């Protein structure tokens, strides 16, 4: 039975996707639901476990009917919703579906007769979608082509191909685009609504081409711009007083990442500059691995007792666990669990960097952030590229790099 006026915000979270991302997005999504008088329903169960997770969005076709919704609003779980976001259903006719924006369909989809007959060339951006029960066909699972046939009609853009995006990632966008054409659904966008109202506000934020760690960093920037999130309470003043090479910006990035990490491993600690930035901001521990014999380009008789200086610099941090070990013996390190974060900043010779990064990759899981320093050095860059499928560089410095293991 349809419940007049009933609204439900649907979101998707299968396989426990990126808790650090959802910690930022979920409170705002719930706040928006409360503001517009909507329920929140999270799709967690897999109905089609042999298909891409985004295919599960098509469950809304049945859920909308089973729950008796008048309106269904789908929002990706990694999207930010501004507290001032208006109720789209108050601006939308029940015979019309809405996205935040739209693409040119022909750029990414191979057309069939539905697209040709429709002629509007609407490419779905299905991370924010609104439709009434009249238009539940928007989410209808295909009954006239197979999953494999759908994938064959998808062509990721050249920009997408340089990232984690594959045909599977876009199957929901393709199928909703096809349903809009197939069923002749009227269509509009939030962007058009704002243009008509001469409103230039940014109410929605979503990026799908970047890994979770970088997504969290950018989200924090957006939330501070929105005055929703106070500046991260990171401290690097103590670290800056220790001799070393990392800049305040780089130390701040490490400190911010450490806020959400409990098991951090540092390969190459020197006098503790980066160690302290991590230790003073993580709620967990920092395992600092080094032989403390100093840079290899310094004569042996000129090296100081680095370990004594390191322990003095970090003595007040009870969560620092120093492990005096030659990096060639990293394979002997026994870890109870995969680290949340691994910082590589030891010997910068090609073979050494490749060995250290390969070890990090071997002990990491799909959520581990692997990062390092001095990517501008050709031997470091070549070694990182030889082990990891891709990496990012901290804008403005060109030195700090990071990568995440893909699912």
CATH topology of the largest domain: Spore Coat Polysaccharide Biosynthesis Protein SpsA, Chain A
Poorly predicted spans:
none
| Structural class category | alpha/beta
Our estimate of the beta-strand percent is: 15-25%
As laid out across the biggest beta sheet, the strand order is 13-12-11-14-15-17-16
Count of spatially separate domains? 2
Overall helicity: 25-40%
CATH architecture of the largest domain: Alpha-Beta Complex
Q: Round the mean pLDDT to the nearest integer and report it.
A: 91
Say how many strands there are. Answer: 17
Instruction: Summarize the main sheet.
Output: 7 strands, mixed
Cα gyration radius (Å): 25 Å
Q: What is the number of helical segments per DSSP (H or I, 4+ residues)?
A: 15
> Quick one: overall form?
elongated
Q: CA-to-CA gap between the ends?
A: 40 Å
